[in-house]
Amino acid sequence: MTDIAANIARIREQIETACLRVRRDPQRVRLVAVSKVKPAKDVEAAFMAGQKLFGESYVQEFRDKEQQVREPVSWHFIGGLQSNKVKYLRGKVDMIHSVDRLSLAKEINHQWEKVERCANILIQVNIGDEESKSGCQIDELELLVRAIAELPNLKICGLMCLPPDLDDAEQVRPYFRELRQLAEKIAALKIPGVSMDELSMGMSGDFEVAVEEGATLVRIGTAIFGARVRANG
Ligand SMILES: *Cc1c(COP(=O)(O)O)cnc(C)c1O
Prior knowledge:
Number of helices: 8
Structural class: alpha/beta
Distance between the termini: 20 Å
CATH architecture: Alpha-Beta Barrel
Bound molecules: pyridoxal-5'-phosphate
Helix content: 25-40%
């Protein structure tokens, strides 16, 4: 059996230690427990262990789980998103990490306008320039941010990436560093309404390196909940 509480405690400690190594304030790093493919009872077990923030990747699964979980958790949507499904997230998620095109941003803006609220979003960057990954191209980023910044019911809070899957976390470090540098570059443009406070990067295999490179949101599934059986995760 997976000891969710013990796993969360261990990961929190690892995050703190990584922060200390680079003199960062551990309070600036939030753990997103990625509960995709896992049942609502696992979310509840994590909640009992003090975990309030959860990440989901599939819209239909999120809709079901959001109904089942009774505790007042905060949900972030981290997966690939089709515009026609945005309406199911409206008002229910506190942040969307995976915005990589203007059409999607416009639909989020449209849906959140209906509930007279502002959606917090991150721009996903295809940092390794991989065909198989979503995310905007690095050289499109500035224009995309400028266009999305015009939408009144959206707030750009930072950047997100899914770097190449490499065996050694150290090999991923340059990608995390590059995302941070991109965020610094965008921040320096001082585009009204755009903040670059959040860097969503790091997963089970590489989150300590991501924290050392400036992550403020680490998205961790396997190391908390155990391996996912369904192959689409
Ligand atoms: C599944 C997923 C994660 C978590 O991955 P683990 O390796 O299980 O920690 C993080 N980010 C995204 C976008 C995911 O889809």
